[in-house]
Amino acid sequence: MTSRVAAAIDAARAEGRAAFIGYLPLGYPDLQTSIDAAVALAEGGADILELGPPYSDPVMDGTVIQEATQAALAGGFRMRDTFTAIREITARVDVPVLVMTYYNPVFQYGVDRFADELAAAGGAGLITPDITPDAAAEWIAASERTGLDRVFLAAPTSTDERLEMIVRASTGFVYTVSTMGITGERAELDQAARTLVARLRDAGASHACVGIGISTPEQVRGVGEYADGAIVGTALVRALRDGGVDGLAETVRALTSAS
Hints:
Layout: H1 4-14, E1 19-25, H2 31-43, E2 48-52, H3 63-74, H4 80-92, E3 97-100, H5 103-109, H6 111-120, E4 125-127, H7 137-146, E5 149-151, E6 153-154, H8 160-169, E7 174-177, H9 191-202, E8 208-211, H10 217-224, E9 229-232, H11 234-256
Parallel strand pairs: 1-2, 1-9, 2-3, 3-4, 4-5, 6-7, 7-8, 8-9
Helix pairs in contact: 2-4, 2-11, 6-7
């Protein structure tokens, strides 16, 4: 089964650029606005959407994203709202939608049930930041059954053996963590990202996208010199917080013009 996510990255590459992957939390500032924001993100030029159901213990998220997800939870967001949102977003725009989620909520919901409902809503797959392939047999089986993409994370600290396992288990792309620590904007992206992408290529990765710390058009352009895609989160969430959907759309246009 062809990966819609990999196809979107290949289409961007055919245009001579890196794919632009944009992250937003679902349910922020409310469910309908988060749906409209995701649509604006796609219409503004994002090649792939990465949408995060809010989680009560977001170990990897920086302050801006944590505050947004806490607001979404306080507003009454429930996991089932994820599928409602994706159904409407995929009806309005033709861009692959990945769900970025910690594994525990998926496990609690029921892995097969989650996979079935995500596929039925038109979702493309999951990014699972806190589980490694060797602990994800149930999700791997469910994704193979439903045709959903599995995006695992690779970090600069990963051994060569672990990188090979991540590359073998991932579909769509490998989420390449540019630097250790939490998400947020950084003045300079680590040289570690460039090195890690090279190691992933050696391990057989055909699609490696870099996230964590990318927030400016210059950084998007820089990542595009060596990776297949740039993943932006905090800068988009801040734009939505400060300027609403219109402010987000303006920021997206500025960032995607650089990829």
